[in-house]
């Protein structure tokens, strides 16, 4: 893929991530856990993980989080997103890399959702200076398994289509 095509494709993924972020913020999701979300933007992260190298995916995540914050986020929202996003990405990257033959896209996505929640709870505990925030983690992990499954399933079916587009 030529450098210009790659940059354009990365830009489109960042833009799609922003659209999913804005759309998800508008959804009144009655989750079992306050603050839990569907994680639709993680579809973009999972897709990018299977299409680009570490550096490019990291760039996509950072740009998406910074731009989402500028589009109406808060400093605390940025901290939760950046911690969850980076921890999630590292976990997914390692799972994909170390278990390439044994772990599916869905498994990688579930791991990402779990570690995203762990990153956010760590930040919450630091912000409020109370380790009791970790008692909230089991509820978030259950929600993360469900959302991670659906994000992974969606990504699994989108990947072949996007790889064909990427090759043109």
UniProtKB/TrEMBL annotation:
Q: Which InterPro entries match?
A: Hpre_diP_synt_I, Hpre_diP_synth_I
Protein origin, superkingdom: Bacteria
Regions that span the bilayer: 7-23, 78-95, 107-128, 134-159
Keywords in alphabetical order:
Membrane, Transmembrane, Transmembrane helix
What's the protein called, per UniProt?
A: Gx transporter family protein
């Amino acid at each position: 893929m030529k450098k210009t095509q790659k940059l354009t494709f990365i830009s489109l993924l960042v833009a799609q991530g922003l659209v999913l972020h804005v759309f998800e913020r508008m959804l009144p999701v009655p989750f079992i856990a306050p603050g839990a979300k569907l994680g639709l933007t993680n579809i973009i992260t999972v897709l990018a993980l299977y299409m680009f190298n570490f550096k490019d995916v990291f760039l996509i995540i950072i740009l998406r989080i910074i731009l989402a914050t500028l589009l109406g986020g808060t400093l605390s929202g940025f901290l939760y997103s950046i911690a969850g996003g980076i921890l999630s990405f590292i976990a997914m990257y390692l799972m994909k890399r170390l278990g390439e033959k044994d772990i599916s896209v869905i498994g990688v996505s579930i791991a990402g959702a779990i570690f995203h929640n762990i990153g956010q709870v760590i930040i919450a505990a630091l912000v409020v200076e109370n380790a009791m925030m970790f008692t909230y983690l089991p509820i978030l992990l259950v929600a993360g398994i469900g959302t991670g499954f659906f994000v992974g399933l969606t990504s699994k079916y989108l990947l072949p289509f996007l790889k064909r587009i990427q090759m043109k």
